[in-house]
């Protein structure tokens, strides 16, 4: 049918819709302005949290020296930090579940502990000259309070975000960490020899401001009106945690132990700070795909395929003979791990909805912290330079990723994919 020429104009239809008070509802998949604001603030909070960790690692030798602590304790203090993170993740996860129904209360609690953590972090350079006990005590306080920005932040997300938008928010959460990972080598160079007081102050203030902005956003009406659902049995989380631990150790070995020697085999040492971020660039490039893939295929299937792809990428990285091929493979492996990470977190959040997200997410992040501990212990014990580990390391990430993928495959075959209750068509 031919329309009169005025009605061919978009403005005419807009006017008709307005005067008729036609309201076209937003679908669950379409992000609102509030959704976008929440995703951006969530990414900013995780970015500044990760930047703070980088600043801490860069200046820790200097802080310990000022406190009279020998340099040989650096790695053991970092291991202790990760163990504190692991224990706090579980404890704060359970605590967040108890107050998740009161959105504003959860937000105030999260902000309060963040301010405690930021204050402790800011004070570290000032306390270091006082002595070892005050410094170590303050580091412990910072680590415990800072853990509130791991699992409880995602409980806040689960309480606020509509289910169809949750993978998008998780991708933003992961992207914030990944951007900080990209910047970490450059930050280490830029901060070398600097006075630590200014970087610690800036990192503390930025993190506190980002979290304050995050918790100010109100709970969405769409999420607030959803009826409670029964979480899946906790026993279903055990095999997924085993898969996450295997894949997490695979990531740690691939990136933190194997990547630098592999790059140095095909490139000059001064190029290394520019090459290491390639993994995180790939991680970030994959984030826009996360929501679409998870909605279409379900979180468990995406995690299974992406974990297997990370293993294949790691295997090819071990064999790459040129800088170009190694760089491309690092990007691909980073993208695969990024998708696997987001899909695993989405499965855990969905399995816990609604009522046990904190406990399940806390357990998940505790497992990832233990994977970091495993890598640090291996380095502290100098295993990478000893036989037979030296010969096994190139292929170890691929084996770990593949084993994790097999565990996920077993879960899918056993029907655990029913945790993906609302995948898209």
List keywords for this structure.
disordered N terminus, 17 helices, Growth Hormone, Chain: A, 2 domains, about 425 residues, mainly alpha
Describe this protein's structure.
This protein is mainly α. The protein folds into two domains: 187 residues, MFS general substrate transporter like domains (Growth Hormone, Chain: A), CATH 1.20.1250.20; 194 residues, MFS general substrate transporter like domains (Growth Hormone, Chain: A). Helices cover 75% and strands 0% of the residues. It contains 17 helices and no strands. The radius of gyration is 23 Å and the shape is globular. 49% of the residues are buried. The N terminus and C terminus are likely disordered.
Set down the secondary structure blueprint:
Layout: H1 10-19, H2 33-67, H3 74-99, H4 103-127, H5 132-146, H6 151-160, H7 166-191, H8 197-216, H9 221-224, H10 237-264, H11 272-275, H12 278-297, H13 299-319, H14 323-352, H15 357-380, H16 389-392, H17 396-413
Helix pairs in contact: 2-7, 2-8, 3-5, 3-6, 3-15, 4-5, 4-6, 4-8, 6-15, 7-12, 7-14, 10-13, 10-14, 10-15, 10-17, 12-13, 12-14, 13-14, 13-17, 14-15
Integer tally of domains: 2
- Cα radius of gyration in angstroms: 23 Å
For the record, what CATH class of the largest domain applies?
Mainly Alpha
End-to-end gap: 33 Å
Helix content: over 70%
Structural class: mainly alpha
Total number of β-strand segments? 0
Regions with pLDDT < 50 over 5+ consecutive residues? 1-29, 421-425
